[in-house]
Write a structure and sequence with these properties.
heterodimer, A: mainly alpha, 6 helices, about 65% helix, elongated, B: mainly alpha
Chain lengths: ~140, ~130
Amino acid sequence: MNPIEIAFIILAFGSYFQHSRQKYFILIIPVLAFFVSSFHAHIPASIEPFIIPGIAILACISCIRLAPMTLLLLFPQYDHFWEALLIPVLWLIVTPLMDNMNSRIDDEYIPAYIRGVPIRLISLGILYHVFHPLSFI
Amino acid sequence: MVDAKHISPASTIDQVQSNSGYLWIIVACIPLLFQLPSSEVPVWAVGLVAGGWIANKHPLRWIALAWGIAVFFPVMPLLLLACCGALLKDWKHCIYAAVLGSALSLSPIPGEINNMGTVLIIIGLISIIYNKVR
């Protein structure tokens, strides 16, 4: 899974991850995971299997509500620093776009069976295809 | 017309949670998106069902369970099971996701639709059909 897919999973589960610390977690954890993977060769083999679970546990303890999002952010393999920055950049672009759209997609002229989560997921799916070319950079 | 004063915050939260009930389908698609080997999908599914019973709604328990499974099945990524489990709301959704994830791993899905955007659009369409039929 590439970082764009992770960013859109987080956006799809947006209602679960509403927390004041959310933006700090999204900014810090991918960068932290990138630095851990880039210093992989310098970490002693005896403690290497404990690094990512250790970070996951610490992040989960610091904010239990954001634990699923933290685990998602630690999950992909970040090969370049750009990939670690892609998740917060996408989140910062798409979140205001979706907030702007939410006021319109909940209007009464939209049929009740489309309103809310279904149209939100379809909008996110279309936005994924709009931003997908960023993964080729 | 419904008066906004008569809508309690609790009922609004219930409505949001019932509408978010389709999101376990996203979790079921995670092994497919991650291209987990089909030999590892049963391990993922059993881990998800076991975790739904043991570690339900406790992310630290999910990490411990995933760690335990990764010891016996090193090919299984540790955080894959932990993040899948932590995303699910209750044990029923764990079972649904495990069954659908296993079924999806067995079915030949073309690579062109094997991406998050298409998955989100398909889930949106499924939820529209479900809402319409219901």
